[in-house]
Amino acid sequence: MVFKKTMFLLLLQHMVLSFGHPSSGDYQNQQQHKHKHKHSLLTDKAALLEFRKTIVSDPNSVLTNWDEAVDVCNFTGATCDRRGHRVVKLRLNGTNIGGMLSPFISNLTGLRILRLSDNHLLGLIPSGFGFLRHLHKVWLNGNNLQGLIPETLSLLSHLTYINLRENKLTGAIPASIFSNCTSLLYVDFSNNKLTGEIPPNVGHPPEIWCLNLFDNHLSGKLPASLSNSSMLVSLDVESNRLSGELPSDIVVKLPDLLYLHLSYNNMVSHDNNTNLEPFFTSLTNCTNLVELELANMDLGGRLSGTIGQLATSLSTLHLESNRIFGSIPPNVANLSNLTLLNLSTNLLNGTIPGEISRLMLEQLFLSNNSLTGAIPAELGQITSMGLLDLSKNRLSGKIPASVGNITHLNYLFLNSNQLSGEIPPSIGKCKDLYKLDLSYNLLTGRIPQEISGLNEIRIFLNFSHNQLQGPLPIELSKMESVQEIDLSWNNLTGSIFPQLSSCVALKLINLSHNSIQGQLPESLGDLRNLESLDVSRNSLSGKIPITLNKCPSLIHLNLSFNDFNGSIPSGGIFNLVTNASFFAALIEFRKIIVSDPNSVLTNWDEAVDVCNFTCVICDRRGHRVVKLWLNGTNIGGLLSPIIANLTGLRILSLSNNHLFGLIPSEFGFLRHLHKIWLDGNILQGLIPETLSLLSQLTYINLSGNKLTGVIPASIFSNCTSLHYVDFSNNKLTGEIPTDVGHALEIWGLNLFDNHLSGKLPASLSNSSMLLTLDVEGNRLFGELPSEIIVKLPDLLYLHLSYNNMVSHDENTNLEPFFTALTNCTVLEELELAGMGLGGRFPDTIGQLATSLSTLHLESNRIFGSIPPNLANLSNLTLLNLSTNLLNGTIPGEISRLMLEQLFLSNNSFTGAIPAELGQITSIGLLDLSNNRLSGEIPASVGNISRLNYLFLNNNQLSGEIPRSIRQCKVLQKLDLSYNLLTGRIPQEISGLNEIRIFLNLSHNRLQGPLPIELSKMESVQEIDLSSNNLTGSIFPQLSSCVALKLINLSHNSIQGQLPDSLGELRNLESLDVSTNSLSVEESSIWLQMLLSSVILIYVGQNLQKEFAREGNIGFVHVGS
Questions:
Q1: CA-CA-CA-CA torsion for 768, 770, 776, 781, nearest 10 degrees?
Q2: Which of 93, 158, 198, 758 meets the CB 3.0–4.6 Å disulfide criterion with 117?
């Protein structure tokens, strides 16, 4: 309301300045004109100076000249209009400034371009930004902004470009942005934490060409209105929780579409996920399509020849991680501009068509399928190819010599097949190779000397698990850039040559499980980057070279099962550091902290004993820093590797701050560390493998960051004392490590809200002490993990929701999983929502632990009736079975439960609402909406005195509204709409004076006058009584409902005049009294008052006197 009043006063002020004074000559007018612009510019300057005050870090000194003595038009990043009257552009993008995003920017009312992207701004997006009515473009991406996207942004009617990407925004996307900002061309809300559905009117801006919403938590279907966005060039909604069929009806109407990214959602193909043909047929209308991404959605169906009819402009095609079957159509070769084709991790079979060689591919992924036959020699004709991945298939025959023609090849993966014969010498021509993996095949013969041509290999060479023979070729020593060599599990002989030390970049050498003889050369000690050396299970002899102590990075050494003699060399590489080093480490850490708003580090000073530093704890003797507690102090800056010098550290708590950058790999030096909290920061990059060196680690929390990549398996295999692991709320990919269950005493595993795929590892069944397993919000697939769960008797919390798992017997049988759950005798929370699980609701539900308090089974395909023995779960407080295929009646036995929330909406329940539900006096929310319930609303509902939310809408309920409902005095939402209710609205409704949100009795057959008792609902925000048979008049006392934002009395038989008192409703945004028999005087006071505040008035065509006036109103409808 303050906003609306302010806008009205601004309009009034403008009118007074422009027209309010009589003319006294040109000179006076010019002076007033100059004074006005000077005042505006001073206001702009004051706003920018206030903005600067909230900036706590400016490492590049960008704002140095933002000073009273400097003309605002000369402020760095600020641009004024040509006449120097107003600041029209503010560009501070990429300047690394940090601090709160100040609402004072809202005073720059002449601003047209606002660019604050790629900084370290915190806080909320100010709702006052709605005042920037001239704003055309706004960039706030790449910051740390939180909270909701303000509804007031919809007031920016000139807005064409808005980018809020890469923040931590939450809540729903305001629909009004798309309905009101009709000039929008570009919208990017990606990489946040937005929830809810994509607004149904997202297609309302007629000229929008780009919509990026990827990497959020959006649900529901793609709105049909997108089919109106015929100018759309880019649509990217990947990595959400969108459902429904692939949007054929939308895509067919987007002929100019260039980029379509739908990957990592829960969509299905047509005909119950069995038919891809309709969608690919619709795509043929996108004649300029460049990128198509449909990965990791478990899409089912055959890959048909329609793929060859797609636009020849197509350059990128991602179909990996689905359930696509059949052979690869040869006419895929028609896509003449295709540079990337990814069909990996599907159910494809047959041979690889040679026609693919006609393409100018740069990357070809066909791994993880069931392809058979030989590798086509024609692939050697694709000389443009930089990556070829045919791994994990059933390919046989020899590696074709023509592979040597692909001279630009950087990555070649042929591992895990059934390839035989010798490694072709021609492979030495692939001089640009970085990674070469031929492991897990049946290759024979010697490693060819021509391998010396691969001297540019920079990452790894893997020939392991074959049947190779002969000595190690000395040509390996020419690979100076290679980081990993794995030749294990072969039949290699000879000795390890000293020249191997020429491979100065080596981090890993694995020569285990061969027949190598002789001594380990002393020269291996020259490999300064070496981290892992495994020569186990050979016939090596002699002494262990003492020079290995010179390898400062060596963390894994396996010399077992050889014939070494002599003593084990003494000495180590990690000597104890002094107290002075601890002091220096903390001082260096402080130097890179750019913001310390609470002055926590003030006493971190040369003159203070390190053991007296705030949040620092030393051991009893004061020799070592053992604890560093800086959690929740709001410090901001780069996470420094200097902390690794605190080698006596046992507890490191840096959570809930604003630390950014990578997790330093040097943290692996903190060998005494027991617990580490880095959660709630802005850390990026990979989880370092070196954390696996923390053998005493019991607790690790890295949640709520922006970490990417895979979870290092070694953390679980090496850190065997782990009790609690939380990597949730990041962007981790890949599979959960297979040896996650190796930490036998682990009791908490939280991996929710990531992008993890694959199945739950079977090793979890070894974690018999597990209490919490939360992996919801990922892309895990496979059957519900019955064999794991049955071995976790102490499990308290099991959260598997929002993955791609299925029930047993091809998603038709829930019984085995629920039977396994009966072994979890202390289970408290079970969440299996949003996975499309199929099967009958098993009777076994009543045999689950009586300790169960929360049961989420919503948004699945569970059918049948609710078993009455569900009532055995005597401690159940939340039961959500909404959005399933359940039918039958609601069992009265549920009344035996002490439920606080009951969701049964969006099913096919029939029969009456059981009167026994009134016995659940503890219930605060009851949702039975969108079913086929009939009969009367039981009077016993009035016994539920704690009820806050009651939804009975969209059923076939009849009879009168029970008077007993007045006893539900704490109701905040009441929805009885879309039923067959009759009779009058009971006077007893006056008892519901605590309703704060909405009262909806619309679309029934209610009769009689509006009850004056409605006026006692002083806190209600919305009243909808539309589409009934109500009569009488609108009483003036309705203005007592001072919180009202919406009134809908349309489609009734109400008579008389609209009362003047409606003008007192200062919060009113929408008034609809259309299709009644009302009248109004043209000079009515209520209209004049509402014109300065109400956004929507819909009066209809039934007026005795029509009217229309201009004002600060959003919309007045006086016609039909």
A1: -10
A2: 93
DSSP state of 789: H
CA atoms within 13 Å, Cβ hemisphere of 40:
20
Tell me the helices (H) and strands (E) count for the chain, helix number first. 12, 83
Give the neighbor-by-neighbor strand order of the sheet with 55-57.
55-57, 98-100, 120-124, 144-147, 168-171, 193-194
Per the prediction, the chain carries an average pLDDT of 89
At 551, is the pLDDT very low, low, confident or very high (cuts 50, 70, 90)? confident
Q: Which tokens belong to 197?
A: 């559905």
Partners of 1116 in beta bridges: 1097
Q: What is the C-alpha R_g of the chain?
A: 35
Q: Is 211 exposed, middle or buried (0-12, 13-18, 19+ CB in 10 A)?
A: buried
Tell whether the model's pLDDT for residue 621 goes beyond 90.
Answer: no
Are 862 and 886 in contact by the 8 Å Cβ rule? The answer is yes
Which residue ranges make up each domain of the chain? 40-122
Pull the structure tokens for residue 677. 């909290």
pLDDT, residue 1110, reads 30
- Distance CA(404)–CA(420), nearest Å, equals 17
Round to whole Å and give the CA distance between 844 and 836: 20
Residue that is written with structure tokens 């420094």 in the block: 640
Residue 668 is encoded by which pair of tokens? Answer: 């692996």
The residue whose two tokens read 């949730």 is: 728
Give pLDDT tens digits for 444-478.
999 999 887 787 788 889 999 999 999 999 999 98
Report, as an integer, the average pLDDT of 619-634: 89
1109 — pLDDT class (breaks 50, 70, 90): very low
**For 987-1031, how does the pLDDT look when each residue is reduced to its tens digit (9 = 90+)?**
888 777 777 788 999 999 999 999 998 888 888 999 999 999 999
Tokens of 506: 């080596």
| Bridge partners, 395 (sequence order) | 373
For residue 177, what are the contacts with CB-CB under 8 A and spacing of at least 6? 149, 153, 154, 162, 184, 187, 199
Alpha carbon distance 777, 799 (integer Å): 9
Sheet holding 908-909, edge to edge: 838-840, 861-864, 885-888, 908-909
Backbone angles phi, psi at 819, to 5 degrees: -65, -45
Cα–Cα nearest to 176, from 1109, 1087, 1099, 1096: 1096
pLDDT given at position 32: 43
> What gap in Å lies between CA 848 and CA 140, rounded to an integer?
49
Helix (H, G, I), strand (E, B) or coil at 134: coil
In the CATH hierarchy, which fold is given to the domain comprising 40-122? 3.80.10
Q: How far apart are CA 506 and CA 486, in angstroms?
A: 11
